[in-house]
Amino acid sequence: MTDQALPQRSDELFGQPKGLWVLAGTELWDRISFHGMVAMLVLYMTGDLLLDPARVATVIGFPAFRAFLEATSGPLGPQALALQTFGYYYACVTGLPLLGGWIGDRVAGRKLAVGGGAAMMTAGHFALAFDRTFLIALVLLMCGAGLLRGNLSAQVKSLYADGDPREVNAFQYYYLGINFGAAAAPILSGSVAAIWGWHAGFAVAGFGMLIGLMVYLGGQRWLPAEQQRAPAVSGKRPPLTASERRRVLGLLAIWPLVVCYWTAQAQIWNVYNIWLRDTVNLDVGGFSVPVPWFQSLDGLAPGLFIPVVLWIWALQARRGREPDVLTKLAIGSIIFGLSVGLLAAGPLLANAQGRAPIALPLLFHVTSNFGAMYYAPVIMGLYGTRAPQSLRGTLVGICMLATAAGSVLSGWMGGLYESLGPAPFWLINAAICTGAGLGILIGAPVLNRLLAQDEG
């Protein structure tokens, strides 16, 4: 059972507790605000803010921040500076929910943490409207995301008693909100930014998060009341068994290869937007497609490709040929890596103006997202099922930190885009991701022994 009082069965909408729709609605608006802002951030820095030294000089804390980045990377031009800034920002957004979850669990309570996080994110989005508070805005957004995301989805379980059959579909509905928000946000914010400017686009993200905060606060009566935790029972945690230690070793051994995948994947929010803007012919019948719109394709992909991938696996299972977990991961990493390699073909397909056809990034999104469906949900399942019960939260958190580590690496690698050019840059990223997939295949015999679950 959970540590919260469950809602009454009569408090339902469409066969689910009304609290689920409150949480899913809050998450929807969080994603609309987040993905809308992220789709524009690198473009805003490289195409506007960082091009004017006088404006940069007014940003609070920027000299110290730049000195921190250049201490490890050497002098940075506007583009490399923007890419590293984004890399650290995205790393914090994906890593801080671990700390935020601990704060909600041990200090503030989940409801206060979510409300406070949403308020901080709202303030952060609106702070982006002013050059002077640019870095303050990013800090508010990072800390707010840590509090909100570390505690929002964790409340879904509290809506259901153990064994409630409705719980099976609850997260499907919840993640539908995530995917819809991720698909709608770049189109909405990107369109506003294209017509009225970057600050108007960021304002859309701010109002989106404000609506999310209002949904959460207004729906409190449908969420279970939090109860005081029972005092922890003193005593040491039982030691891990030999089998559990072996599985932990296996999960730690595969982690560097997971980082390689997320390093290539993180470039799609980072360098990829610059590549689209500068090297792809975005004109379609006289209409210039806003760059942020392409990010919407990744929001639509799970709804389109997950059923296809599940159908493929079911068909293979009936024939006794369904790949095991490690093979699925290898396939996903290799497909994603080869898809990144497609971007290097841009110069070969370029028109007289040196721009690649818009079909190239569209093909990339189709193939890369197909590969991602073999990877992202599978790796989380691997860590969730192989981790010992006493370390499950910690090891799943370590798995999530691979995304943060990959984001930092993607920012550091951004300088290579300027020095080497687009084609070599994408080939390097393709080699990293594809190599990680091949590494899983080569290491599979050892990894399978380490990760094997006990019979019975």
TrEMBL record:
It is found in: Cell membrane. The chain crosses the membrane at residues 32-51, 112-128, 134-152, 173-196, 202-219, 248-272, 292-313, 325-350, 362-383, 395-413, 425-447. One of its GO terms (cellular component) is plasma membrane. Keywords: Cell membrane, Membrane, Peptide transport, Protein transport, Transmembrane, Transmembrane helix, Transport. InterPro entries: Dipep/tripep_permease (IPR005279), MFS_trans_sf (IPR036259), MFS_Transporters (IPR050171), POT_fam (IPR000109). SUPFAM superfamilies: MFS general substrate transporter. Gene3D superfamilies: MFS general substrate transporter like domains. It comes from the Bacteria. One of its GO terms (molecular function) is peptide transmembrane transporter activity. The keyword Cell membrane applies. One of its GO terms (biological process) is peptide transport. The keyword Protein transport applies. It is a multi-pass membrane protein. This is Amino acid transporter. It comes from Novosphingobium fuchskuhlense. The lineage of its organism: Bacteria, Pseudomonadati, Pseudomonadota, Alphaproteobacteria, Sphingomonadales.
